[in-house]
Amino acid sequence: MDEANQVFVVFAEGRWAGEADGRPFDFGDGELIGLDTGRPSVGLSTNSRWIMINVPQRALAKLMPSIPDIHGHVFRSASAAFLADHMIAMARHLPRMQVDETERITRATLSLIASALDELTFRTKTNEAFAPSAIRRRVERHIQQNLAATDLSPKSISEKLGITRSTLYRAFSPIGGIAAVISEHRLDTARAILFHPEDHRSISEIANLLGYRSTATFSKAFNRRFGCYPRVARATGTTRERMGGRLLFHFWEDVLTKSCVDADDRAAIEIWGPNPKRVDRFQ
Question: What pTM does this model have?
Fold first, then answer.
């Protein structure tokens, strides 16, 4: 597997808005954003020109013991503004630099990047106590979007979201565990479908839609949670557990075209633009 790069992008002209693995961003002239090429992001830009630096993760690891999560973060500190100005100036002067000059500039650039990352390192430490709830929101969004997957499990979630199993279990332990949350999402959605007056799918179709391997398994799980079987719930319009409000079931598929950004083994500077209505995805 190729090593993921840390990407730093500064917009010299134009604006870019989108989402980086669930984190929304919106930035423009002179602003700096960080991205991880190993994780998904998608954005839409206006006519624009930007400067991008790809930095191998191992290069940053030599400068700091722990690399913070930069994916989708728009940097606001004075150090970040200094780095953004440096990148714009570097792009202007790069064509006439000699080899020995580029080596010195690369070292200086890495030092400026490490300084800008201090902003994020401080914020990460400050918000450490809130990490479990942030993880839960991200995981529960993934669960809701993948209810039909028969392999939806702590293992698959850990692999797809890049969260260790131990972190996952710690985050969900206070609310009954990750397996219980997956089951609750599926069963609450099933109940909403059963109570919908215009939804006439069979019990087996609902079970299949929500990732159950058999109708019997689904019916038993539904009975354990609500105290009645799905057919009874549909016929009576109620379960023994009172509903707190109408649940809405949303099912959608990803229609965004995927593309790849190659991970280079060395730090690289790329200048892009103008580029009207460009959609970028790092996968």
Answer: 0.45
**pLDDT per residue as tens, the chain (283 positions):** 456 789 999 988 888 888 988 888 888 888 899 999 888 988 888 888 889 999 888 887 777 767 788 888 888 888 888 888 999 888 888 888 888 888 888 888 888 888 888 766 655 444 443 456 778 888 989 998 999 898 999 999 999 998 888 888 888 888 889 999 999 999 989 988 998 888 889 999 999 999 998 999 999 999 998 889 999 988 887 765 444 333 333 332 332 333 333 333 333 333 333 333 333 333 3
CA–CA separation, 92 vs 100, rounded Å? 17
Provide the sign of the torsion angle of the four alpha carbons 239, 242, 245, 249, taken in this order: negative
The two three-digit tokens of residue 177, written as one number: 């565990």
The full set of domains in the chain, from first to last, is 5-128+256-282 (2.60.120), 148-236 (1.10.10.60)
The C-alpha atoms of residue 279 and residue 137 are separated, in whole angstroms, by 26
Yes or no: say if 132 and 138 are a contact pair by the CB < 8 Å rule.
no
Query: Cα(79)–Cα(114) distance, rounded to whole angstroms?
Result: 9
| 210, two tokens | 């929500």
Q: CA-CA-CA-CA torsion for 124, 8, 43, 262, nearest 10 degrees?
A: -120
CB contact set of 127 (below 8 Å; sequence gap of 6+): 134
Give the Cα separation of 11 and 278 in Å (integer). 14
Please classify residue 117 by burial: count the beta carbons closer than 10 Å to its beta carbon, then call 0-12 exposed, 13-18 middle and 19+ buried. Answer: buried
Tokens of 61: 């690891």
